[in-house]
Design goal:
The complex is a heterodimer of chains A (176) and B (194). Chain A has 176 residues and is an alpha+beta fold. Chain A has helices at residues 63-76, 105-119; strands at 2-4, 10-13, 19-25, 29-35, 40-46, 85-90, 124-129, 135-140, 146-151, 156-160. Chain A has a five-stranded mixed sheet with strand order 1-3-8-9-10, with no helix packed on it. Chain A has a five-stranded mixed sheet with strand order 2-5-4-6-7, covered by helices on one side. Chain A is globular and about 45 Å long. In chain B, strands 1, 2, 3, 4, 5, 6, 7 and 8 form an eight-stranded antiparallel sheet that branches. Chain B has helices at 6-31, 47-53, 82-90, 99-124, 140-149, 182-191, and strands spanning 35-37, 41-46, 60-70, 74-81, 128-130, 134-139, 157-167, 172-180. The chains are: A alpha+beta (176), B alpha+beta (194). Chains A and B meet through β3 and α2 of A and α2, β3, β6 and α5 of B.
């Protein structure tokens, strides 16, 4: 079953055959945490770098809250902290808006999520980020978790794992 | 934010009606073709639903973004499905995914946005003006979410005024959206005395 993770939401699954998806990521980030040994995957749809309000209704909207929260959900589902790996996609700069706080929101999202994941000492195995195109990220849950990304108008591309058990051949790492 | 009342939504819909009527007239005289306009919908929705109202998030759209600055901050967004963008560009013998095509779609956005915004400004007595259009070709969800979050503000909810324009005889329809955030909606309603 495919579960679409909407903006500001997060989902965790350990059910083989499940797919978690962030569809049409622009400046947002799809953040995946996986425990491949246990077959547990979590996906958060992060929209902004940092939360500025107390007790927000959608904590996964913000990078600073999403990372610890998704980590907590993974551990609660039985993931081992030391085995966690991260994959991210998104953070595109689709428009150039004048004004604002200087740096572009996609880049700020990438920086914030990366910083939080690194602070949690979780290795980032693949990142398909930056650029100017929207993306769809899919996490295929099972004994061999695979993560794919597709750019607007492009083809599905493997970010982690793979149908032939190619775990470890993490194809493309692009740090924008 | 409290849900908007029926009266407020009616007022916003009426604004959209007049704005898109004006925009349609401008498009019609640019193309030399009749333009048919649907009754607009007005809704204030959480972001995820705002994206869903415009279609499937992964579908390809040609988008023209016209940010509006001044007393009221908003974004005019035109969305063309690919076949419709092709039909529109064909009137001028060009393809949408080329510099000429993008330029033309941008100009359509400019004309529609300017006319819509001008009539809105007059009705509510605000000083607002459009900024130069940007043209993109991407997934619908990516376009909408990036437009709404573009300035990095913490947006929970978007006001969407959505009208459909049909260019007669060309099977070309486009969605015309006016997007604003919580503060923008409030300002607009205050101006209307609601």
């Amino acid at each position: 079953m495919e579960t679409v993770v909407h903006m500001g939401e997060a989902q965790v699954s350990s059910t083989p055959g499940d797919t978690l998806a962030c569809i049409g990521l622009g400046s947002c980030i799809g953040l995946t945490l996986v425990d491949r040994r246990r077959g547990i995957a979590g996906l958060a749809h992060v929209m902004l770098p940092a939360c500025t309000q107390p007790d927000p209704p959608l904590p996964h909207k913000y990078a600073d809250l999403a990372v610890p929260s998704l980590l907590g959900l993974m551990l609660a589902t039985g993931a081992r902290r030391s085995r966690l790996e991260a994959v991210l996609a998104g953070g595109a700069a689709m428009f150039q808006f004048s004004g604002g706080s200087g740096q572009e929101i996609g880049q700020r999202n990438i920086a914030a999520v990366t910083r939080m994941v690194e602070a949690a000492r979780i290795p980032i195995r693949a990142a398909e980020t930056g650029g100017h195109n929207g993306r769809t990220l899919r996490v295929h849950v099972g004994a061999d978790i695979s993560i794919t990304v597709r750019e607007a108008g492009g083809r599905e591309q493997q970010l982690l794992g793979g149908p032939a058990g190619r775990a470890g051949t993490d194809s493309k790492v692009v740090y924008a | 934010m409290n849900a908007l009342t029926d009266m407020q939504l009616d007022a916003l819909r009426e604004l959209a009606n007049i704005g898109s009527g004006n925009a349609g007239t401008a498009l019609s005289s640019m193309l030399g073709k009749a333009v048919d306009i649907s009754v607009p919908t007005a809704a204030a929705l959480p972001l995820a639903e705002a994206v869903a109202i415009a279609g499937a998030p992964e579908e390809l759209r040609h988008g023209v973004v016209v940010p509006v600055v001044g007393d009221f901050e908003a974004i005019v967004l035109l969305l063309f499905p690919d076949p419709d963008a092709r039909a529109l560009c064909r009137i001028y013998g060009i393809e949408p995914s080329t510099p000429d095509g993008r330029s033309m779609l941008g100009e359509v956005g400019n004309i529609l946005g300017t006319n819509y915004i001008n009539v809105l400004a007059q009705m509510v007595g605000m000083v607002i003006e459009p900024t130069p259009p940007q043209v993109v070709e991407d997934m619908l969800g990516a376009i909408l979410s990036s437009v709404l979050l573009g300035r990095g503000d913490d947006v929970d909810e978007a006001l969407i005024l959505d009208s459909n324009l049909m260019v007669e005889g060309e099977q070309c329809s486009l969605s015309f959206l006016l997007l604003s955030d919580r503060g923008g909606i409030k300002q607009l309603l205050e101006r209307l005395g609601l």
